[in-house]
Amino acid sequence: MTSLHADEAFLGHYHLSHDPFAPRVPGFKFFPAQRKPVLGQLHHLARYSQLLLVVTGPLGSGKTLLRQALVASTNKQSVQSVVVSARGAGDAAGVLRQVAQALDVSNAEPNAILKQVVQLGLTGQEVYLLVDDAEQLDESALEALLALAAGTPEGRPHVFLFGESSLIADLEQISGEQELFHVIELQPYEEEETREYLAQRLEGAGAGIELFTAAQISDIHESSDGWPGNINQVARDAMIEAMIASRSAVKRPKMGFTMPKKHVLAISAVVVVAVAAAWLIPGRNKAPTTTGAPTEQAQLPLGKPTPNVEFANSGQPTNLPMVGQPVMRGPLAEEAGGISEGDDGVPVEGSSATPPTVTTTAPPAGVPAGTPATPVAPVTPVAPAAKPTPAPTVATAKPAPVAKPAPAPAPAAKPAEKPAATVAKAGAAGSSWYSSQPTGNFVVQILGTSSEANAQAFVKEQGGQYRYFKKVLNGKPLYVITYGSFPSRAAADSAIKALPAKVQAGKPWPRTVASVQQELAATR
């Protein structure tokens, strides 16, 4: 904050044009209480006294403001004011150099300066020499200033020293028994003067004394001891505290039940996952059964190429139509009557109620439900075991050559379910790749998802060096997508900076291949 401006919130809250309690304010009028009489006294002594004039008071008592008022109230045509600061130049050489420069004197000596003062007096101009921070003057500087104040019979400057009360003892030591200076001690304000001072400051900024209560004004006066510099600071602090208190009261939440934000986000995430899961679960249509062998109808594409998918325990790839996700049935149990049914009531291959194996296609659009499906490719049945489990039945859009029958799996093993057909191959490939990498290498972990379909889609979309592996977190599967394989962490960090912006948005981070291999081992 500068000396002329308060922070924006402070000014805006009270609708102020400027900070009314800054040390320097635009258009501020000199406050008359106990200061205007002193100003008149200084002018009087400068005209009729031959002594050096000293104004003392503690820090914040208004000495500098009084010095400014003295300069501003002089007649510029008849008075040349020379202002000198003792801060950083408190010896005789430093003070005389400033005076000589202001009066355009080449020789910074008391006699040369006095000659210039006499010359200015002949032209009708007096010289006022005003020294700020005079308590920092050393003995040599005080002696030089006393010599200038004494002057010569032809002329002399009027010397004013503004400083703290410690200055008086130094002058008394130099003067001895001689009367060489006159002291004016500034006094603090009374409470009523403090109130008038606050009102004048606020009115200059476009506000009024009603911003403070009578109790606040009393507190400000007591805390500041009546010194104007302290009044400025205490009053400003009081206004800021009141502003903060009023804003806090406005922002205080109403009483009532409010669910924490993190709970709302968690519920939203669960809802999104549930909707996504419902969308991804394939629909199943049960065909009406008639007397004889039941038929199962599935919505399969016609005339579209089908990808090869390798089933568990199968040595031959089989063409599988893909509509979103394939529909596959598996036996669950055998009933006491000797008929084994799947989870939708369709008799399972090998039971007494079903012919060997039937491959069906979905009826064309417009064909009534219940129309028997057209056999496409009969498959030679497999010799039944004690409790046979059939190989998956595959429907194709076009007639295909008869495939060799897959050997029946062991009775205890369950057939791979529908999503596992695609996942098994990709997951196994990913696991083997991570196992083949050096343990000291690094990969960049991109993200983790509980949906393998999402992981597959992400890897397919990004391509390149993106892979994923499966781990178990809190008893649930998590599919972790990684990028690349790098010999050092620095190389992995550099690769992260080159990733697309939307990938970097997920805050990817480097990790060792060894840590991935440990998670894979734990998952197995």
UniProtKB/TrEMBL annotation:
Residues 287-298 have a biased composition (Polar residues). Residues 284-415 are annotated as: Disordered. The chain crosses the membrane at residues 264-281. Residues 436-512 form the SPOR domain. InterPro entries: AAA_22, ExeA_AAA_ATPase_DNA-bind, P-loop_NTPase, SPOR-like_dom, SPOR-like_sf. Keywords: Membrane, Transmembrane, Transmembrane helix. PANTHER family: GENERAL SECRETION PATHWAY PROTEIN A-RELATED. This is SPOR domain-containing protein.
